[in-house]
Specification:
This protein is mostly beta strands. It contains no helices and five strands. 0% of the residues lie in helices and 40% in strands. A five-stranded antiparallel sheet has the order 4-3-2-1-5, with no helix packed on it.
């Protein structure tokens, strides 16, 4: 199973609230800066960096979506 996004791809990230609940907030634009090893359960992980803030996150593929 290969990663769906490449390094330097821009994506939307939906922030999550307490215990995984989605936060009602505009999605932020991030850039893929790294593709991490696939987890044991098959989930693909990425390191992403915000375009507007000095923030990096590690997310699974389900938490990001392509720009429209």
């Amino acid at each position: 199973m290969a990663h769906s996004y490449a390094i330097n791809d821009d994506v939307h990230h939906q922030q999550q609230g307490p215990q995984g609940r989605a936060v009602v907030k505009q999605r932020s634009v991030y850039t893929i800066v790294g593709r991490l090893p696939i987890e044991a359960d098959g989930r693909r992980r990425y390191r992403i960096k915000s375009k507007t803030e000095n923030i990096e996150r590690v997310v699974t593929e389900e938490q990001i979506s392509p720009l429209d």
